[in-house]
Amino acid sequence: MDRDRIETVSLRWLRRLVIAGFLLITVLPFWYMLVLSVRPIERLLLAPGTLLVPLRELTFDTYTEVLRSVAGGGQGFLTFMGNSAVVALAATALTLLVAIPGAYAVSRLRFFGRRQIDVLFLAVYLFPSIVIAIPLFVVFTRAGLRGSLLGLVLVYISQTLPVSVYMLKNYFETIPVSLEESAAIDGASRLGIIRRVSLPLAAPSIMAVALYDFMIAWNEYLFALLFLVDRPDRWTVSLGLSLLSDGVEVPKTVLMAGSVVLTLPIVILFFASERLLTEGLTSGAEKG
After folding, report:
1. Which of 44, 130, 182, 263 has its CA at 20 to 30 Å from residue 136's CA atom?
2. What is the pLDDT of residues 62-101, one digit of tens each?
3. What is the tens place of the pLDDT at every residue in 193-214?
């Protein structure tokens, strides 16, 4: 009995230590970035390793400079964030608009090649982005979409749609067919069944897919660089951050403020929908 109790207590403390270790590894870099962004550059040069900022040293001038427009002497991140928000929201909405009916059709309808759909969707990710970057650049240039946010939205849709269909299909397959059959007996049409039965039950998975799509579009850099490099007024926030990192005259405190501005929206979205995200990521498992 004493041995079992010792093992239980030991495992409990070991679990706490492991969780604390992972938490420290995850939070410490972001905390240090946040600390650097609110310190004057002269104080940073004197004590670069400080993890706590005295109140007398606290400053938000770096954020003012980052968000101020370029014409006003700032870095223009407010414009970059607006562009990123437009692109990410549009790409997420359009991806879900196509992925939801596509995933439902693959999970419920019977047609030739249905079993090979999963392989085809996942095969898209066997090719690195750089492989399709040049062909897309040529095609979009000839179509007159290079330098436009619309072209970037279309690229992100092509990148996120396969995995979105795959994730949603796995969840739709866990919804009992009997629920939809009952709704059909009551006189509901196929669209009515999807709207009143399937979509409400699939809400956690849809939220997880939406967050995934949004994060991809918000943080992506390669295609944004290819399509918008000659249009600074349409740059996304990731391009703006690369401009700060390449600038020798830009203080590192301003660079860290830009990094916080880039990261914070994703962190807020993640914690605001943590429960739905957790349910959605595990919803593709088989139910007993």
Report:
1. 263
2. 888 888 888 887 888 889 999 999 999 999 999 999 999 8
3. 888 888 888 888 888 899 889 9
